[in-house]
Amino acid sequence: MSKPVLGLILGTVLGIFDGLTALLEPDIATSPEVGSAMTGILLGSSVKGLLAGLIIGFFARKVTSLKSGLIFGALVGLALATLVAAMPDPSGKHYWLQIMIPGTIVGLILGYATQKYGRPAAAH
After folding, report:
1. What sections of the chain are H helices per DSSP?
2. Half-sphere exposure (CA, 13 Å, Cβ side) for 38?
3. Nearest Cα to 8, choosing from 110, 116, 81?
4. Helices 66-85 and 96-117, axial angle in degrees (round to 10)
């Protein structure tokens, strides 16, 4: 499987798990609208993971270095998670660490997986 496609698929799946970490936040888990909140969180996290996986996969196709892939993956995951964390919930509260830590971990995993298991680009 090519590195961008691997990143895209794995990023989407990991994005779902990233979104599920929102259930660890008591404000969200005990909210009466937890169902609608989780739907939005899971959709947003999936799209964020998909985008991160695609970006990291294309990077892995150009640069063949596990160390560079890990650093780039963590930075992409952190950057995308920071953009999401900058959006407050309806009450105005921000969840900086609760969003940025799992996002960075997803980026690290994507950087590792695309470098280690993705098929390199064909030589021309």
Report:
1. 3-20, 26-29, 34-62, 66-85, 96-117
2. 18
3. 110
4. 150
Res 30 pLDDT > 90: no
Mean pLDDT of the residues in the chain: 94
| Structure tokens belonging to residue 48 | 């964020």
Higher pLDDT, 124 or 50: 50
Phi-psi region of 43 (alpha: psi -120 to 50; beta: other; left: phi over 0): alpha
Give the CA distances from residue 35 to residues 28, 32, 53, in Å, rounded to whole numbers and listed in that order: 10, 8, 26
- Positive/negative CA dihedral, 96, 99, 105, 108: negative
Dist. CA 10–CA 3, nearest whole Å: 10
Residue 47, exposed/middle/buried by CB under 10 A (0-12, 13-18, 19+)?
Answer: middle
Question: How many whole angstroms separate alpha carbon 110 and alpha carbon 77?
Answer: 9
